Amino acid sequence: MPQDLSPAELAELVRDRYADRHGGAEHLERSAAWDIASLTLALKQVQLARSAVHDLARTSDLPITMALGADDSEEMISLEIAEDGLQRTLEALKRL
């Protein structure tokens, strides 16, 4: 999905693609509900991972491990990007 779209624009794109593939939107709500549940779980898992990496860095003794949980580390930034993408997609699906 294009990363520069707002949740509303993303929802419209999903509606259009679903209609193109399935010839209508009769099952769109059921598909969206299933995906919303899956995305919600994935989002909670990413948030838990962020918290775990942050806690690991806070409680570790070695600098290399501490660096993993720094706010500007690649690992934390990657988790933030994943969380933002999941949240944006979740918001878009709730608009369907």
List the helices and strands and how they pair.
Blueprint: H1 7-22, H2 28-59, H3 63-68, H4 74-94
Helix pairs in contact: 1-4, 2-4
Structure write-up:
There is one protein chain. The protein is mainly α and 96 residues long. It has helices at residues 7-22, 28-59, 63-68, 74-94. The mean pLDDT is 88.
Major sheet details: none
- What structural category do the secondary elements indicate? mainly alpha
Q: Determine the N-to-C terminus distance.
A: 16 Å
Tell me the β content.
under 5%
Mean pLDDT: 88
- Number of separate helices: 4
Short description:
With 96 residues, the chain is mostly helical. The chain has helices spanning 7-22, 28-59, 63-68, 74-94.
Please give a handful of descriptors for the protein shown.
single chain; 96 residues; 4 helices
